[in-house]
Amino acid sequence: xxxxxxxxxxxxxxxxxxxxxxxxxxxxxxxxxxxxxxxxxxxxxxxxxxxxxxxxxxxxxxxxxxxxxxxxxxxxxxxxxxxxxxxxxxxxxxxxxxxxxxxxxxxxxxxxxxxxxxxxxxxxxxxxxxxxxxxxxxxxxxxxxxxxxxxxxxxxxxxxxxxxxxxxxxxxxxxxxxxxxxxxxxxxxxxxxxxxxxxxxxxxxxxxxxxxxxxxxxxxxxxxxxxxxxxxxxxxxxxxxxxxxxxxxxxxxxxxxxxxxxxxxxxxxxxxxxxxxxxxxxxxxxxxxxxxxxxxxxxxxxxxxxxxxxxxxxxxxxxxxxxxxxxxxxxxxxxxxxxxxxxxxxxxxxxxxxxxxxxxxxxxxxxxxxxxxxxxxxxxxxxxxxxxxxxxxxxxxxxxxxxxxxxxxxxxxxxxxxxxx
Length: 421
Description:
single chain, alpha/beta, eight-stranded mixed sheet
């Protein structure tokens, strides 16, 4: 595999870009693998990569019914952060953020990670108290966080609506300087290239149609390209989790599938050099500016269950109102496109990473709004779970049986209502 560097870019520029190798192979399935990962999104590809890199397990197949990055990985708003409110979540996402900080070097592939910082605005004294509590949780876990006054926010981003009669008056914000954004497609391609370099087979356009079981143990998968035997099977399919797990005889899971829309505007001159988010009664919004100049933003879920990857007008209106409430200068900007990803929303707003009741079958699901930013750590810890057949200290809290035992991790304090997370 070619090693990417400034010298290779210059060399190929001089010889007409004729010497590049394929980023990854397109092999035919083998009859059997040590591990089969169902799902070729960021989490599945990262799992395969870390199985090979960290555990020396290279006889691995990633089985994807479509193309790499065609699911949620390529349908999000690219934000990376670790400013969560529950200690277990905060520590997990902080590990992910640390992996992000060196990911381009690790993969020898530019994932375009930009640590531009994130501002979480608050609009009333209760919001300030909640932001302070979150910042204290972060600092107790060794993560930098700070509260900014209204004037400090104004110095950073002068073109927000600071008027006294604003719909959401800005009293200040919580700042995480190390947060930022990454290029979603590049993340999928980088992990795919890295996994392939270790010998992992990436099987695109290969749909899983059944999961083989013998005596309570998984033994492989049925696919549109035939039967593939496996000693272990990992499932990382986001909003399709319920459908895939039913193939293994697991009919009920504490998740629901909802769609979450994302939006991008026409390209603009530099306007916003950080990520901004806010939540208030009747409003939920986050925005950043891409390297191409487009304003990338999103808000709430479509509040009904769906497997559709397309948006609808009520959410377009809702998110546009949220944008105008905080950034009135966007009033004449044209919306370029919008789309939706299928989110697997858990009952407590926190992900599930666990062994399942079926032996040698492992589940990675329930990521709610946090899937993209968790990609490196998700792959790291899911690979560890599969390789060692037990959760490590950081992921033990995210087991499936926490719902049965009443040990939920209620990330937003809203209880068992997935659409509110």
